[in-house]
Amino acid sequence: xLHIKGLIKSFGHITALSNIDLHLRSGEVHALxxxxxxxxxxxxxxxxxxxxxxxxxxxxxxxxxxxxxxxLARQLGIASVFQEFSLVPDLTVLENLFLAREKSGRIxxxxxxxxxxxxxxxxELEFHVSLDAMVGQLSRAQKQMIEIAKALRLEPKIxxxxxxxxxxxxxxxxxxFRTIRRLKEKGVGIIYVSHRMAELRDLSDRVTxxxxxxxxxxxxxxxxxxxxxxxxxxxxPVSELFPTITMRPAExxxxxxxxxxxxxxxxxxxxxARSGEVVGLAGxxxxxxxxxxxxxxxxxxxxxxxxxxxxxxxxxxxxxxMLDNDLCYxxxxxxxxxxxxxxxxxxxxxMAGLNLPSVSVGPFFKYTKEASLVAGPLNELALxxxxxxxxxxxxxxxxxxxxxxxxxxxxxxxxxxxxxxxxGIDVGAKADVYRYIKRLVEGGAxxxxxxxxxxxxxxxxxxxxxxxxxxxxxEIQENEKSEANILSHYFGESAEKELIQ
Length: 501
Prior knowledge:
- This protein is an alpha/beta fold.
- It has three domains: 2-235, P-loop containing nucleotide triphosphate hydrolases (Rossmann fold); 247-326 and 414-428 and 444-501, P-loop containing nucleotide triphosphate hydrolases (Rossmann fold, 3-Layer(aba) Sandwich), CATH 3.40.50.300; 333-411, no CATH class.
- The chain has helices spanning 40-48, 70-75, 93-97, 111-124, 140-153, 170-185, 197-203, 226-234, 289-297, 319-324, 334-338, 345-350, 367-380, 397-406, 427-442, 454-460, 483-487, 492-500; strands at 2-11, 14-24, 29-34, 55-60, 63-65, 78-81, 158-162, 189-193, 206-211, 214-220, 252-261, 269-274, 278-282, 302-309, 312-313, 327-330, 360-361, 364-365, 415-419, 446-450, 463-468, 471-476.
- The protein has a six-stranded mixed β-sheet, sandwiched between helices. It has a six-stranded mixed β-sheet with strand order 16-19-20-13-21-22, with helices on both faces.
């Protein structure tokens, strides 16, 4: 269906893609794998016509094109779902689904026909949301499903999905997988971008790997191990992914006692974490991990309980109070809550430390020194490309994460809370994040990592708290860490008893 041959794309003196070859078959899920910055997004933009190639050609259904444009791509049946949403928040779900492709008569829109078609599409996706709901009021997961529905409404012959499950729960992702399998049966060719190995193994037929803008190879999915794919991606053995962290637990830096939040997402939770150790928070999506982190930082209203930092109570936690008390929090959704995407990387790094003596004197900001202040943190985290003046949204997902994490290096915080620190980023960027955590802990900081990735919990944490329906179900010590032991507490006490029996 699609044959890419010798594709090259340069931006000025920077070559983003070099001599890329790829072919997509009818009824195939072809995974595209690579680190953030490997060139995956650039390749997708060349296929859909957002960018023009510097050299090379694309052949679609037997006809060759030296360049593509969005209108021609749509005409040829190519549709894409990007990581960054293209929805209009002030329009309804129905209006977004038909935006610029409305069904109209001589004078009026055929709203009843549009409504019926949209409802059929959402029913096929097993996605339940009101067509009259304003998109701006939907959750990120709901917006993701609307984006997917928009693409499928065009009945594409070639569908490109870029990290489609990054915002979805396991149940929502499974509905999407059923849709993908139905499309395969109809002969649709699908290019699927994801960093989740389990998804790629379950869905894809072949995998093409890019590294540093270069074509590394294409392999049949069932003929290569996860370790083999990771080594193709990063150019080094997977054993080097998790660093050895030397932990020296000292005094209790953070103590949470019988904490509950007003919306009921956290109930009677008690945890503690020491300086010089990593404490993990485990549990299924929606178990209360994220809400507990947000409550500690002052983003969720607390109904009961107590928070102590270095033995002193914090009566009314707010983000500014917690930052002043040397607690740094990194949210799970960097796009919505972690970054000002339209602002330069430089401003995103310094925005949480505007009152630091290195950044300002009284009401006066040290503009001339800002660039040099962010250079150290961004270089330490290996921002690529290193361009502090570039808007945050122009960086890959992994590099956006690094920009957000660089804030934590603007000063020495006592406590760092990471909520899903590696969501939607590649293996190479994950390794950089893990080294960052190692650096903090070995420097004496207290680190809490809330993650749905079991390997992260086991390889990074000294102790692990498991949550279920807002409650702490278990505290797992270092000598008890195993996937089976952690998972045995995921579904509450009744499930635990059944497993024991």
